[in-house]
Amino acid sequence: MQNEIINTVKAMFSGADERDWDKVKNTMADKVLLDYSAMGGSPAAELTPEQIINAWEGLLPGFDKTHHQPKDFTVTQNGDTAVVHYFAKADHFLGDESWTVEANYDTGLVKTGGTWKITSHKIKDVKQSGNKELPLKATEIAKSKL
Asked: What is the C-alpha end-to-end distance of the chain, expressed in Å?
């Protein structure tokens, strides 16, 4: 059971790296409480998978490559709900430059119709290294691809 939960989280990240937006969407419930406020972004908000994917499509395809590496999973399950605490390193490459984000995450899930779906996704304890201007460059590149 815990492997199914962890695999859902891993699929969200691998789908983002692969730019397989259907794969990402399939990991999410109808609404997801997304909280990237620890990165200095918007406050936590309940969003649809489409809204989250639209935001990610406006950034990630601007990089040449991204590689998310979640690990050290701790799953707390209570019936059809679960919270996964883990560490992830995300490398973002553009040309010969890179930007790396290392952080702890808490991702909530619910089992619906026999499948685990993400209901919340919070990043915390963020450490960034490399070229912190790369997201701005990647956003401009991603916009030109739309």
From this structure: 39
The CATH number of residue 51's host domain is: 3.10.450.50
C-beta separation of 99 from 134 below 8 A: yes
Total domain count, the chain:
1
Which pLDDT does position 20 carry in this prediction? 98
Residues contacting 96, CB < 8 A, separation 6+? none
Give the pLDDT of residue 21.
Answer: 98
Beta strands in the chain (DSSP E): 28-35, 45-47, 65-78, 81-94, 97-112, 115-130
- Round to whole Å and give the CA distance between 135 and 131: 9
Beta strand 28-35 with 115-130 is: parallel
Average pLDDT over residues 93-103: 97
> Stretch 22-30: mean pLDDT, rounded?
98
Range of 6's domain? 2-145
The pLDDT value recorded for residue 53 is 97
